[in-house]
Amino acid sequence: MSVEAGSRALLADGDVVLVRPLRPADTAEVLGLHTRLTQRDTYFRFFGARPSGLDRLAAEMAADAGPGHYAVGCYRRGELVGVANYEVLKDARDAEVALVVDATVRTQGVATLLMEHLVSHARKSGLKRFVAEVLAENAKVLHVFADLGLRFEAGSGGPEREVVMNLDEDAAYLDAVLKRDSVADAASLTHLFKPSSIAVIGAGRRPGSVGHAILANLVASGFPGQVEVVNPHAAEILGVPSVPSVAALSRTPELAVVCLPAPAAAEAVEECGKRGVRAVVVISSGLTGTEAGERVHAAVREYGMRLVGPNCLGVLSTDPDCPYDLTFLGSGVKPGNIGVVTQSGGVGIALAESLGDLGLGMSTLVSTGDKYDVSGNDLLMWWTADRRTELAVLYLESFGNPRKFSRLARQLARTRPVLAVRSGSGGTAQRAAASHTAAAATPAVTRDALFEQAGVIAVDTVAELVDVIAGLSWQLLPGGPRVAVVSNAGGAGVLAADACEREGLVMAELSDDTRDRLAKLLPAEAAVRNPVDTTAAVPPEVFADALRAVLADEGVDAVIAATVPTAVGDPGTAIGAVLPPQCKTVFAVRPGQRARVAPLVPGRGVTACYDDPAAAAAVLARLVRYERWLNRPETEEALAPLADLDALRAFATGREGWLPPTDAVQLLRLAELPMVETRYVEADDSMAAAAADLDSPVVLKADAEGLLHKTAGGGVLLDVRGADRVMEAFRTLRSRFGSALRGVTVQRMAEPGREVLIGVRSDPVFGPLVVFGLGGVDTDLIADRAARLAPLTGADADLLLDGLRASKALWASGQLDRGAVRELLLKVSRLAELVPELAELDLNPVRVRSDGCVALDVRARFERPAATDPFLRHLRD
Within the chain, which residues score under 70 in pLDDT? Predict the structure, then answer.
């Protein structure tokens, strides 16, 4: 969100304010704020400013001070309550800043919010530092600076303190912004999840309508606060008092739910805003893309309300202090520890029913519908503070701010599992692929990279989602990938073992001691190696002893116990007796059971029992990947600083379209990426000089209009030796491409090695995606690639290197310099972050040897980056 258009944001107490740029027409409002100030009001201006500086700011605004001046204001309920501005100094990298905050909102974070907006704008303008001289007794100002999260230095001694704030973006600043955002967002959502009073607008008198169903669910939920209905045709409905309009309510409700046709719904939301309602749930459909929908947007913006929907199933909370159900679900929801946010009401209904069948309950359910305001990111922040929610579930059809989602989901997933149902995987929805990297960077690949890096457990169907929820609800995370299978039916055991290997799990090697114990317990015909077949003749107590023996093996991290009942007994009844003393993951499989997954509750323990070994193995594999993610190091790799960062940024400024070959090579040089020695010859120039500069043999590559992939298009001539042959090859390319030939790249032949691809594809919503795969002329045919979103950590780079189907064979010999490729991936990621104009980069092939790696070809495309800051605090508009 660009602050240029103004944006809604939250204060620390959850109050919604509008932050927007100030222009000369706002001068009177700035002066009006000045007249409300007292001598004790917090006001400061860098370089020894005094309160009279606000008059100076007003004068500058009236004169429209130009590009070196920027001012932003904070409005609460239409009134200006804070102003901040900066002015660029003689050193164009530095700026001085002024800030004033009304005393009525002094402790609500207005100063910090305004500073964040100044920082965002200053960065986009190329500023590097805010510098200041602050009165020593102005401790509040120093606290604002220190808490902002920027690298901050303040001098000591004397009546004034010299302050320097570095504007470079780093993790510490983003973490500080995210923490402030989470606190403010949780405060604002308190109106939604813990309201003191609720109004149902549009509840019908007769059963069968959505409004009547919502009111019935609310009454049945045991909500402890005051409830009123707005319906002009009834005095009471279901025992709840009814009034004809929002204005006639006996008190201003904290939360309102609207169940009316689109035009009437818009009017109701407007009336709620005028009345001072803090949160609204709009069930109504048919608003989006209409004038009524625009009226709802405008009302939310004007009156500072939080809104769920429209076109949604509703909201419920099972908080014992404030339970309520504002959905039209057909049956009640059991209280529990699962939080759900879904864009699809149908998915919400299906999940509620499935969890109910398993005896599992929800802490919260939010159906966001058309997602005008409250989104998945809001719920991630709420659940981070809500300790009742121990498992978060997401169904998202779109991402409004995926980079923020990544940080929020990663933060939450560190303390409890986050699950997501993939959507939109069917079609590639792919852009025209002008490079191999673009061919790989489909929306599905980008979304999956986001989930994987954030630690989100992703599934493809609601049924798979329920499978994983069951596994997480009743069992521990596995300590590793080593799985043992114990079965009383040999076929079921073999199927389970095959499923584990398909999912990338490791079939554990049982120790000699374990096999000896099993041999003593089981019949002679039993199989005591993994998978263990106890035979169908063993009674339940013997099966339980065999399961204990396998669980005691130090080489086993998890067990799948597959059983069928026989005339001798049902070994499945013995599994529960084994569970409590053990501290390893155990899943049960009972082929033929009616439910896909069900709780197995015999004896003292509980576990998930699946109807098929493949389902149990799939769940186990997902939990193993999540456990690995939890144990990944979080540290970022420290690369040596670039020698000339300013030159790199200057090179990128103003460029658009595909770079000419010479500029693409220059980009790699400035980014310190290894590139084979290269010369470029214009089509009309002589080749002689280039041929003489490079030792034989050389490669000639055509630069021709419309030639996207050089080798496939006949634009590459290899192993050309001697000046005469070079000239002949040049003439061949001229003849082959005619007037389309712009020039020829001449390179020294690189030493033999393995060819890989490394590239970047920048998405306007997700940001840059780094792609790694097998390269060369057949890269698209082989299609063996992995992808991660920038910025990459060292762990991300390792996952890319190990993420190919061919990775094991690629690195097994130890003859390729893995470390050099890893460093190149990190440098490419850094380039993508430093140069947001880089829309596409294709290094193919990159030749990898035992002593390093080097790019043999490069294509790069630039485009004007969107003027957005994904981490600037704002609400959806």
Answer: 1-5, 38-67, 424-442, 602-605, 635-636, 688-695, 867
Instruction: Please name which of 128, 30, 39 lies closest in space to residue 81, comparing C-alpha atoms.
Output: 30
Burial of residue 159 (number of CB atoms within 10 Å: 0-12, 13-18, 19+)? exposed
Q: Which of 474, 467, 537, 538 is nearest to 503 (CA)?
A: 467
Angle (CA) 310-313-317 rounded to 5° is 110
Which DSSP helix (H) or strand (E) runs through 692? helix 688-693
Those residues with Cβ within 8 angstroms of residue 387's Cβ, 6 or more apart along the chain or in another chain: none
Q: What pLDDT, on the 0 to 100 scale, is given for residue 100?
A: 85
- What distance in Å separates the CA atoms of residue 523 and residue 517, rounded to the nearest whole number? 12
| DSSP annotation string for 28-75 | HHHHHHHHH--TTS-EEETTT--TTHHHHHHHHHHTT--TTEEEEEEE
Question: What whole-number distance in Å separates Cα of residue 396 and Cα of residue 459?
Answer: 12
Looking at residue 865, what DSSP letter applies? P
Query: What are the structure tokens assigned to 494, written together?
Result: 């073999």
- Give residue-wise pLDDT tens across range 342-374: 999 999 999 999 999 999 999 999 999 999 999
Two structure tokens written together for 145? 């600076």
CB atoms within 10 A of CB 340: 26
Quick one: 235 exposed, middle or buried, by C-beta within 10 A (0-12, 13-18, 19+)? exposed
**What is the H or E stretch that residue 263 is in?**
helix 262-275
Tokens 């929800």 -> residue: 362
Query: 426-434: long-range contacts at Cβ-Cβ below 8 A with a sequence spacing of 24 or more?
Result: 434/658, 434/708, 434/840, 434/861
Name the token pair of 709: 């992939």
Instruction: Give kind and range of the element (H or E) at residue 61.
Output: helix 53-62
Cα–Cα distance for residue pair 172/323, rounded to 1 Å: 37
In sequence order, the β-bridge partners of residue 35 are none
The CB density around residue 860, as the number of other CB atoms within 10 Å, is 26
Question: What is the Cα–Cα distance from 305 to 192, expressed in whole angstroms?
Answer: 10
